[in-house]
Amino acid sequence: SRAEPLLSVRGLTVRFGGIVALDAVGFDVARGHVCGLIGPNGAGKTTLFNCLSRLYRYQEGDILFEGRSITNLPTHGIAGLGIGRTFQNLAMFRTLSVLQNVMVGGHSRSSAGFLASALQLPQVKAEERQQRERAEEIMVFLALTPVAARPVGTLPFATQKRVELGRALAANPKLLLLDEPAAGLNHEELDDLARLIREIRDRLGVTVLLVEHHMGLVMGVSDRIVALNFGRKIADGTPAQVRDDPAVIEAYLGAP
Ligand code: ATP
């Protein structure tokens, strides 16, 4: 149903040897929300993203997407469900054009389409055309049309980051995981990013889970914020509630 959370993380526990990277973490992400995930270095944010992408196994707990457990899904099953992500260190083909990179993203949603295209099956033409149209819409949305033919590696950093967003959006995700999108951006680029994240939510209807160190950005765009420290959830609420939470202030500033 529409009322059930899009994503539900329950009692998630991840250990690396003696280190408890996540300790019984639970929270929900409502459809149509931007949910911020904050916490000092080593809090467990990246580990959580890697669990959501099925890159890490968890020892305890469960992750429900649209009410169904993803625990036993293979990594490649995640995109098909509608979970897309970007990476802290951009993951693109630097010598391929912007258009090609965005189209590669479109393939990841349907492994059948990717296979058909690799095998040059007849349905490829229609599928390619659809994917190209989708890629072109996304490039308009991200103001990338003027650089569509340029190799990604030749573009300014902020533009490369928009291409990575485009690659993730081309798969038509219901949930988009953004891993530190603000890193390395200047003031003006940060404003553009904030506007884009709101538009991804409001115009594309995509739910966003945002890992971010830049407090201005995360406070400005999030409907809801979950704070982690040493693998534990220490706060969960509106930006104002989380900003004023004594446990959050202590986690960032050290002991009072
Ligand atoms: P940052 O903001 O610095 O990216 P983070 O909140 O993303 O930090 P994680 O990278 O999830 O934190 O790390 C949580 C804890 O788990 C840390 O103590 C880290 O050293 C540990 N950890 C994460 N991944 C691994 C791994 N693959 N092997 C061993 N330890 C790991």
Automatic annotation (TrEMBL):
Every ABC transporter domain range: 7-255
Alphabetical keyword list: ATP-binding, Cell membrane, Membrane, Nucleotide-binding, Transport
Pfam families: ABC_tran, BCA_ABC_TP_C
Keyword Magnesium: no
Gene3D superfamilies: P-loop containing nucleotide triphosphate hydrolases
InterPro entries membership: AAA+_ATPase, ABC_AA/LPS_Transport, ABC_transporter-like_ATP-bd, BCA_ABC_TP_C, P-loop_NTPase
The keyword ATP-binding belongs to this UniProt entry's keyword annotation: yes
Superkingdom of source: Bacteria
GO MF entry, a single one: ATP binding
PANTHER family attached to this UniProt entry: ABC TRANSPORTER ATP-BINDING PROTEIN (PTHR45772:SF4), CONSERVED COMPONENT OF ABC TRANSPORTER FOR NATURAL AMINO ACIDS-RELATED (PTHR45772)
Name by which UniProt lists this protein: ABC transporter ATP-binding protein
Species of origin: Variovorax robiniae
Lineage of the species this protein comes from: Bacteria, Pseudomonadati, Pseudomonadota, Betaproteobacteria, Burkholderiales
